[in-house]
Amino acid sequence: MSIKYQIFIIAAVVLITAGCRTTPTSVLSAEPTSLSFTVEGGSKTFVVTANVFWTISKPPAWIEVKPTSGNGIETVTVTVKANTTNINLEDDLNITATDVPVVTVVVRQNASTLLPVTNMTINGIVPVTGATSVTTIETTQYGGKVVWYPDDAVFAPTTDYSATITLTAKGVYTLYGVAENSFIVTGAISHANVANSGVITAVFPITGETPTIAATSTGLASLKAGQAVSDASIVYTLSHATYAATITPDNFAVTGLPAGLTAADATRTGNTAVTVAISGTPTTASENTAAITIPSAIPQANVTGAGAAVVAVSGTVTAGAVAMGDGASVSQPAVSGTPTHSSITVGAVTLTPTTTGQSAQYAITTNTSTAMPSDMTWQAESTFNNLTDNTAFYVWARSEANNNFNAGTAVRSAAIFTPAWYIGRWYAVQNPTSTITITFNANGSFTIDERLRGTYTFNETSNQIIFTATHMWLLLSWQPITSTPIPVTYTRTDTQWTVTAVSGIDLLNFLIGLTFNRL
To answer: What is the distance, to the nearest Å, from the Cα of residue 57 to the centroid of all Cα atoms in its chain?
Structure first.
């Protein structure tokens, strides 16, 4: 709505109300009622339309409003600074006047997508007698200026130096979120910074001492087989001198690293730092730390301002013990084929990764817990025998521990059931030309060839099958019959059973003495 149109409306309201000889109606509105800012901030406006005196509530610290009050139509300017936080900002500007509802203008600003700097170590600015003072710092995350006190272009001997380092974040990085005193200045005896700031003060040792080199390592203290090292290196930090612009990498070579780790060529990473990057993945577990062999001295040609032929290297560099690695993960075991009443076979599981040198192992239990039972017996075979029939089993699989890797996390199968021993079809040879087949179904029904059918129960205690015949095959159809339960006594092994007696009426006498084998 244009300002001219708003003035016209107010004038019309005033004329109408004046003509009616009534008290004028108070008018208060704002347009637009929301302002959205990008992370960079800036200024935007909204228009207050009123015929009364109005005021805007005190804005939060991140919002600047001008003016904050008025009488009539006013253009209000809202200014926000760049949002350095990772939080989307939103607040209300409440416009109030007498006898009218509060009008609210919502101000929003996008969160910063910048990342807090993580490179908290500043190398290569240590004052060394005769060396040119370092006045700038450049990393991938930030750049910076260094101001020295006293302000010597070349460091003087036996002088105490301090520095103020002012860092400026680069690209996607921000110094917002930096903790107090979190920056470390290599070679300084003290260093400090305030929170959310890249201004660092550092105090250094007096110049003029004999140049020395200290060898230290990072990323090698805690090693594990199968786990690649991260940001591992050996750093030769030079005190009281600077490294030459060109160094000889072989003079800084290291040996004796744990199996699987490799040392790169030494590189000059600052005026006072030479770094040997370590990469790779430990392949062999060891309970012992490894002493890494480093040179005892560095030739003078690598150091500017060194008086002696060599600069001594101090420090012992070791690699930590290599812990056994995490075992390979396995796929979920699943039944293979049809379980018998006394055996279950599962298919081979897949190990990931395949580089651990491990094999799969299996265990079986009736424990229904999803937590791995501690009392299971593990085996390499995926077939389990001598099981109890009519039982739910759970097969667990994992990668087997070896010299370098722990057993992997065990994974459980779904329930796998062994059928009751008697479920299925059994046959008996009655004579050379005739076979009697009995089928016991899981639902409790039975059939004997084309002769009888009905229901059954098994009494494991008395070794009896209780048959109740309900139909007989007669005149080319199943005819219902009335039958009392007929106990049949048997003896059995795992694969056959023999009828030893039939009690009651002679409906099943033809079974006496027959031995039945599983089909």
So the answer is: 46
Write down the pLDDT at residue 495.
80
Q: Determine the pLDDT at residue 307.
A: 53
Q: How many CB atoms lie within 10 A of CB 475?
A: 7
Strand ranges in 230-282 using DSSP code E only, listed in sequence order: 232-239, 242-243, 261-263, 267-270, 273-280
Stated as kind and residue range, the H or E segment containing 12 is helix 3-19
The Cβ of residue 3 has, within 10 Å, a number of other Cβ atoms equal to 12
- Contact between 142 and 169 (Cβ < 8 Å): yes
pTM: 0.50
**In 336-423, beta strands by DSSP E:** 344-345, 351-352, 360-365, 383-384, 391-399, 411-412, 416-418
Q: CB-based burial of residue 65 (10 Å sphere; 0-12 exposed, 13-18 middle, 19+ buried)?
A: middle
Q: Name every residue whose Cβ is closer than 8 Å to that of residue 329 and which is 6 or more positions away in sequence.
A: 351, 352, 399, 408, 409, 411
Antiparallel, parallel or unpaired: β 173-174 and 115-116: parallel
- Closest Cα to residue 438, out of 503, 498, 506, 505? 498
Q: What is the mean pLDDT of each successive set of 10 residues along the chain, which is 519 residues long?
A: 46 45 77 91 94 92 93 93 85 92 94 85 85 90 95 86 94 86 94 92 86 92 92 92 93 94 95 96 92 92 76 91 95 93 94 94 95 93 93 96 95 94 84 80 89 90 90 89 89 86 80 85
pLDDT tens digits along 446-457: 999 888 999 999
3-class secondary structure, 501: strand
| Length of the chain, in residues | 519
- Opening angle at CA 498, ends 459 and 427, nearest 5: 105
Alpha carbon of 437 to those of 94, 440, 442, 466: distances in Å?
92, 10, 16, 17
Q: In order of start, what are the domains of the chain with their CATH numbers? A: 3-109 (2.60.40.10), 115-203 (no CATH), 214-299+309-323 (2.60.40), 326-419 (2.60.40.10), 424-518 (no CATH)
- Identify any residues that bridge with 436 across adjacent strands, giving them in sequence order: 428
What is residue 444's DSSP assignment? S
State the DSSP string of 110-175. Answer: PPP--EE----EE-S----TTPBPP-EEE-SSEEEEEEEES--SBPPTT---EEEEEEEE-TTEES
Percentage of the chain modeled with pLDDT above 90: 63
